[in-house]
Amino acid sequence: MKTLNNTISVEKLRPLIALFLLCVVLSLLSDKFLTVNNAWNVMRQISVNICISVGMTLIVLTSGIDLSVGSVLALCGAVTAGLLKNGIPIEATNTYVGFTLLGAILAGLVVGGLLGFFNGWVITKFKVPPFVATLAMLTIARGLTMLFTKGFPISGLGKEFAFIGTGWFWGMPIPVWISLIVIIIAFWLTTRTKIGRYIYAIGGNEKAAKLSGINIKKVKITVYVIAGVLAAVGGIMVTSRLDSAQPNAGMSFELDSIAAVVIGGTSLSGGRGAILGTVLGAIIIGVLNNGLVLLNVSPFWQQVVKGFVILLAVIIDKANSKAE
Amino acid sequence: MKKLIKIVVFLAILIVVGFKSVYFRKLDEMQVSAGSGLDVAAYTANYFKELNPLLDTSVNVVTLYQALKNKDLSLVKSKGHSLSLGSLKYIMVSGQGIVAKVDSGSIIVNAINNEMVEPVYIETEFIFGNAIRDASGIVKLSDFTNTTDLNNVSSEINKTIRETVVKPFVSTVQKGDTISFNGAIEINEKYLNVSDLQVMPIRLK
């Protein structure tokens, strides 16, 4: 029993140990790494990944996956920026529907939620594997982004909007506050609510969960909606930070978020994992990216290194599953 | 009863949020006031006014080519400009020479300076990019509040060159003519390739 407990605690501590070792190595290799400015820079950069990775964690816990988060992020950012800047002109009635900052942000979040709902609905209604359904959404959302933006960035969104991605509040960047709020809510959701327990139950054994009376469809759709909304939050943060909605924003963000989830110890087969692990995973990815940039490593090699780190995490996950 | 209260509260929140989120205006009024951004045409016209006196300070294209062939970037560093952080620099050049060939997309000129000759490609079809905008150093990032205006200025400058400089010149120039020219060249300091260099024209005589 004692040995089992030790194994569990080491397993939980593994991402933390990896992060600590990574920080030690990088601070030895670069004198710019261990500075306050760089720490805030890393935190600001990973805020977006934390938001979408938290959503991804919920999905992976139900043994699903969402490949569309990057495209959904881009579309929601574009919708927010487009409505804020151009509103909706209706020529037939000579009416211009303008959107305030609140309105544009809400519209972006609603679009994210709707796309998430569509993902969940397709997966549960037609039994389409999540990999395929969200792969389709990846293309659909990217195409819609291109249509909405006509392939051009939407820029000049105003100081108020830029504050979301670049501002500070109580000595901390706004994106870090947003990601902190997302983490707290997701932690509460997964550990203190009924739906949190259902998510783990579905991922652990879907048939057993169904037999015990859990509404699988409802829970799954809810989880995809949450992931969509969180991708929208990420999209708004990216757009605000750049003061521009780029039609190709969020490319390969899904890979970074899956990497954060896996490195954080969430099992790809579902039912096992935690939000805080994902947060650590996202920090590891962020620190790794930052360290490689500081060490002047070619962007091509950065991809290779990141790929190997993900591979290592998956191998460890498989080994753990086998041992259990 | 509890459910009814919930619905009423929800609807009340929805109405308040709705009022705070959208507003309605007449479309024609909005279109009149929308032209409040940068006046790109006026900015471009002013740019050309400031550019003209600077053309005489351009680097001779033959001198520049000779230096670049020897991997000497000192002229690029001292006379080149760029609005970005990358390795691309833009430099204003001038030259004289004899037209060797008139293609559909470019004019090849044997540029002469101090008995040295270099073949120079003057672009006449695809006048694009930021070379003409950035080479003079007149345009400053601080003049703009957004990247769209900055890009629009680039497009407007290129359009002006196409219509007022290239079009009338191309219709009259022939092989064997002696011409003088001013233009801008994009140089990648990191991956220098002299054979790829093209002059984006600014003035052709």
Description of the structure:
Chain B: It comes from Polluticaenibacter yanchengensis. Chain B: This is DUF2291 family protein. The complex is a heterodimer of chains A (324) and B (205). Chain A is mostly helical and 324 residues long. Chain A has a single domain, classed as ABC transporter involved in vitamin B12 uptake, BtuC. Chain A is 75% helix and 5% strand. Chain A is globular, with a radius of gyration of 20 Å. The two termini of chain A are 14 Å apart. With 205 residues, chain B is of the alpha/beta class. Chain B is built from 7 helices and 7 strands. In chain B, a hairpin with a 2-residue loop joins strand 4 and strand 5. At the A-B interface, strand 2 and helix 4 of A face helix 1, strand 1, helix 2 and helix 7 of B. Strand 2 of chain A pairs antiparallel with strand 1 of chain B.
Instruction: Look at the helices and sheets of chain B and give the structural class.
Output: alpha/beta
Q: How many beta-strand segments of chain B?
A: 7
Unreliable stretches covering 5 or more consecutive residues of chain B: none
Strand content of chain B: 25-35%
Ends of chain B: how far apart?
87 Å
What is the averaged pLDDT score of chain A? 90
Number of helices of chain A: 13
Any guess at the CATH architecture of chain A? Answer: Orthogonal Bundle
Number of domain modules of chain A? 1
